[in-house]
From TrEMBL:
Organism: Neotabrizicola shimadae
Function description: Catalyzes the oxidation of 5,10-methylenetetrahydrofolate to 5,10-methenyltetrahydrofolate and then the hydrolysis of 5,10-methenyltetrahydrofolate to 10-formyltetrahydrofolate.
Enzyme Commission no: 1.5.1.5, 3.5.4.9
HAMAP family per UniProt: THF_DHG_CYH
Gene3D superfamilies according to UniProt: Leucine Dehydrogenase, chain A, domain 1, NAD(P)-binding Rossmann-like Domain
Keywords: Amino-acid biosynthesis, Histidine biosynthesis, Hydrolase, Methionine biosynthesis, Multifunctional enzyme, NADP, One-carbon metabolism, Oxidoreductase, Plasmid, Purine biosynthesis
Stated name of the protein: Bifunctional protein FolD
A single GO molecular function term of this UniProt record: methylenetetrahydrofolate dehydrogenase (NADP+) activity
Residues noted as binding NADP(+) in the record, renumbered to the chain: G167, R168, S169, I233
Length: 287
């Protein structure tokens, strides 16, 4: 079987992070201040603990200040709204991120709506979603932005290509569609209720899997030569332990033109784009 090219998100993200760190150093030397990112984590979700830890380490490694707020699962909406108000007012905080998912008693939409849109480095506030959808300058959600960078790096101009996105979440699927539309792709958003999902995916020049189901996209869903971006990070049992797999059956995708591996594909790009958004928010405050 032919071998699909591996799209090395880890290496691309390392390059981005090095450029961001150099810029942070230059800004600190020139202005005597540095970007600050506040991350709010509520409860003990194991995957969120890992992601928040990785975000903290990357923030510090890039020379930025990291303000972590790890709160118990019982924390009330009022306490969180107060905290967000304080972070909005804090001049040392340029980016605010509330890690999702939140415990069921909390209203995530209301919390996101309370974040100052200029500090919304996740790009989840309706103001930023609306700006992105109407072609205005926006904070863009980190995971789809990272996917776009990998696609543009691998394919160059995306004009006229058919992109099929499997998954319609506010975090990935919908903003991914907006970004690819702005890049002149023909865009189809598919989801669990779509008819003939496999056949639909086979029409894709660019196939983006963002459903959160281990290896759901099979090899025969992929058109030969297509570029496949696997957003999934799923932990599955493996012998006595576990291992990470994506939403695409990687071993069946040898006929793709290129594919992102899991891990080492999209995951590192999400964090690099978070640093980039934090730097952007900081620069706008300096200007
Ligand atoms: N949970 C999964 N992905 C994300 C993300 O990009 N941002 C936040 N805040 N929570 C998430």
């Amino acid at each position: 079987m032919t071998q699909a090219q591996r799209i090395d998100g880890k290496a691309f993200a390392a390059g981005m992070t090095a450029r961001i760190a150099a810029e942070v150093t230059a800004l600190r030397d020139a202005a005597g201040v540095e970007p600050g990112l506040a991350v709010v984590l509520v409860g003990q979700d194991p995957a969120s603990q890992v992601y928040v830890g990785a975000k903290h380490r990357a923030t510090v490694a890039a020379g930025m200040r990291s303000f972590e707020h790890r709160l118990p699962a019982e924390t009330s909406q009022t306490v969180l709204l107060d905290l967000i108000g304080q972070l909005n007012a804090d001049p040392n905080v340029h980016g605010i991120l509330v890690q999702l998912p939140l415990p069921a008693h909390l209203d995530a939409s209301a919390l996101i709506a309370a974040i100052d849109p200029s500090k919304d480095v996740d790009g989840f506030h309706v103001i930023n979603a609306g700006r992105l959808a109407t072609g205005q300058d926006a904070m863009v959600p980190c995971t789809p932005l990272g996917c776009l960078f990998l696609l543009q790096d691998h394919l160059g101009d995306l004009s006229g290509l058919h992109a099929v996105i499997v998954g319609r979440s506010n975090i990935v699927g919908k903003p991914m569609a907006q970004l690819l539309l702005a890049a002149n792709c023909t865009v189809t958003i598919a989801h669990s209720k779509s008819r003939n999902l496999a056949a639909l995916c086979r029409t894709a020049d660019i196939l983006i899997a963002a459903v959160g189901r281990p290896e759901m996209v099979r090899g025969d869903w992929i058109k030969p030569g297509a570029t496949v971006i696997d957003v999934g990070i799923n932990r599955i049992p493996d012998g006595d332990g576990t291992r990470l797999v994506g939403d695409v059956a990687f071993a069946e995708a040898g006929h793709a033109g290129a594919i992102t591996p899991v891990p080492g594909g999209v995951g590192p790009m999400t964090i690099a784009c978070l640093l980039q958004n934090t730097l952007t928010a900081f620069r706008r405050k300096l200007a």
